[in-house]
Amino acid sequence: EEMLSSSDFAFIVMTAEDEHSDGTKHARQNVVHEAGLFQGRLGFDRAIILLEEGCAEFSNIVGLTHIPFPKGNIGAASEDIRKVLEREEML
To answer: Domain named CD-NTase-associated protein 12/Pycsar effector protein TIR: which ranges (predicted)?
Structure first.
C-alpha cells in the first residue's frame, strides 16, 4: 500500500510462474492483483505491464499498454522500456 501511494509510475513484470491444469502458464495471482491496483491508481499509460513470452494474458490486457519480452530475457525489452520512460519525460 505504501508503494502504491508513493508511486507515480510502475512497471509490472508478469512471468509464466504458475501452471494451470490445462497446461497454460500464468503470472502469479498477486502480480495480477498488483497490476490492477497500479493501473487503477496510475492509469494504463503509467502502469506498464512487461509480459514474458508464454505467459497467458489476462482478458483485459488486450489493447492495453504492455511490452512483450522473450522468456528469460527481460533485457530484450530495454529499448521499448526506454521509449516509455522518454514519453513520460522520466529520461
So the answer is: 1-69
